[in-house]
Amino acid sequence: MDSLTTEQILDAHLDDWRKLAQALHARYLTGDFAAGLRFVTAVGAAAEGANHHPDVTLTYPHVDLKLISHDAGALTQRDVDLARRISEIAREQGVAADPHAVAEIELALDTADLAAVGPFWAALLTGSTDALHGSDVVDPKGRLPLLWFQDTDHHRTPRQRFHVDLWLPHDIAESRIAAAVAAGGTVVDNDNAPSFVVLADPEGNRSCVCTCLDR
């Protein structure tokens, strides 16, 4: 099945869901464990019927879901269709969504030699170099955040090599950046906004606030 562009995902108007780094994410406020279990059971039945399965995290006050077509390595119409069905289930059960609560951390490492450092980090983090997919280390068991290798030039002077990419819903990124600046941060580079904005803390440590837009 063909992968969908970010524009196609946004045009689908999946109000409960937000696209972050790669997948669709949603949080449903079930309120207690029993209600969450009922919701997850209904979602599981829908997933079995569609032969397409989300990642599900059930906690006492809420349920988190993640959708991506692993065989395509991208979002496809299967994800859109199942997201819509899950939203219908939530409405049927009176469960509210909180799309602005979703977020995702990605670690980024500057490197001029991916072929040299990529296998090391894959083996260290997951136990196998097979976890290196292109410029990413992907933990097949879902225990670790994504590690992305950012291509850079060779350099001798010390500089920050690791930084945190914070993926946020596209419709709250600006307010989060403003909050970080009000708390003492600085906007270092916004030339690529709204795709990403580089921030620095008062000591110069950098982070990128990333969204799915303009990618």
Automatic annotation (TrEMBL):
Keywords, A to Z? Answer: Lyase
Q: From what superkingdom does this record's organism come?
A: Bacteria
Signal peptide as annotated in the record: none
SUPFAM superfamilies from the UniProt entry: Glyoxalase/Bleomycin resistance protein/Dihydroxybiphenyl dioxygenase (SSF54593), PCD-like (SSF55248)
Domain Glyoxalase-like, first and last residues per copy: 107-210
Catalytic reactions on record = (4aS,6R)-4a-hydroxy-L-erythro-5,6,7,8-tetrahydrobiopterin = (6R)-L-erythro-6,7-dihydrobiopterin + H2O
One MF annotation (Gene Ontology) recorded for this entry: 4-alpha-hydroxytetrahydrobiopterin dehydratase activity
Record bears the keyword Cell division: no
Q: Does the keyword Acetylation apply?
A: no
EC number(s) given by UniProt: 4.2.1.96
Q: What class of enzyme is it?
A: lyase
The entry assigns this protein to a family as follows: Belongs to the pterin-4-alpha-carbinolamine dehydratase family.
Q: Which PANTHER family match?
A: PTERIN-4-ALPHA-CARBINOLAMINE DEHYDRATASE (PTHR12599)
Name-wise, this protein is Putative pterin-4-alpha-carbinolamine dehydratase
Give the source species.
Answer: Intrasporangium calvum
